[in-house]
Design a protein that fits this description.
By secondary structure, this protein is α/β, with parallel strands linked by helices. The chain contains 16 helices and 19 strands. Strands 1, 2, 3, 4, 5 and 6 form a 6-stranded parallel β-sheet that branches.
Length: 495
Amino acid sequence: MIDNMPKVKVGIVAVSRDCFPESLSVNRRKALVEAYTKKYGAEDIYECPICIVESEIHMVQALEDIKKAGCNALCVYLGNFGPEISETLLAKHFEGPKMFCAAAEETQGDLIQGRGDAYCGMLNASYNLKLRNVGAYIPEYPVGDAEDCADMIHDFLPIARAVEGLANLKIISFGPRPMNFLACNAPIQQLYNLGVEIEENSELDLFEAFNNHAGDQRIPEVVADMKAELGEGNKKPEILEKLAQYELTLLDWIGAHKGSRKYVAIAGKCWPAFQTQFGFVPCYVNSRLTGRGIPVSCEVDIYGALSEFIGTCVSEDAVTLLDINNSVPKDMYKESIEGKFDYTHKDTFMGFHCGNTASSKLSFCEMKYQMIMARALPEEVTQGTLEGDIVPGDITFYRLQCNSEGELVSYVAEGEVLDVPTRSFGGIGIFAIKEMGRFYRHVLIEGNYPHHGAVMFGHYGKAFYEVVKFLGLDVKKIGYNQPAGVRYPTENPWG
């Protein structure tokens, strides 16, 4: 993958109340680092040698030390009760995602001089973080032994990647959203509130840049790479040169326009004028960039691109953006799903888009023409889409969105893509999510979400939920699929 997401290095700083033995925090920190290294390796962590003992001077020393070590994330570790002022000042002054966790007591045989009371100190830490308006990740149960805390830090990594990534992200858009696609409306104030920059461009700007890449000497190399990727699925070889020209245009645009930002996502307009002017559809190129770690959303879905980027950081893998598209026919459900999978008919739906899903996430793929667009346009200008059934396996369906009232809202649900032939076209899969029918009605429709949902390939709901919480979303604004028997606030109790 292209280097388009942060590499996280967590500085672990132990803290100690001056009326507790400093050795408790120091020795417990050493045990934590040893446990983490044994299970996960030492690449993602740094052990700060300075233990903060109720001192702002120690705080400054620790802050300077972890910055010098190249840490872009912080773990404040309460090895004992901890100094609430200096430990929260450390979090306040550290520019990057941070977490807190606390040491459990080790043994009943050492509860006099060996008792640290970090269980108590964590309460004071949380109180003081709120006083200072400092956001920090606190695990569900933040108290544990060395192995437990090692797992907490490891769970923090995808959260930290996403938060750090957003703070250094630029979304590049081309064109206004297509007509009649008000669902892709994108108020930009909330992007700025998240620390995201946006560069808005015209389709004409992109078209000019594309034409300037005609005859680019790098085109044959890109074409060869496309041929190797497509293999027998290369059904439209005549269009590869134009697609290669377009891919180089986007990559060069990123290089020239990234500016001070480290990471990029793209929201592009792909119809209706794109086909007639460029002479192809951009789907395959979009899929290639997304597969390499540069998310590209369709239809100028800026918050879709934002969501894709978060998922890329969380999963460290390619993601996709799909229409929550069509119901599964009853005969298909009865023939291929009922009795074979533990889902009701209403738990299932088809996720589809024209051809933006990376080839690595398709069971098979073919370069074809875009059938929907070809109903109204000459087929020859609709070539360049990537079709195939999406790989079966675990998925997370999610989105971060600015709603029509200007509020950030979100949803997330875990499920799977079923190993069932779709018998359809495009990049498409049969999705199954427990209680999807109720989620569809009382989260997606009730929450006025657009039709695009982002997909991570694996179960990452816990991490995504913590990311959007860290970003400041009210938990009431985060929708998820309630289990059977638990009503949504808007759900009629009589069905």
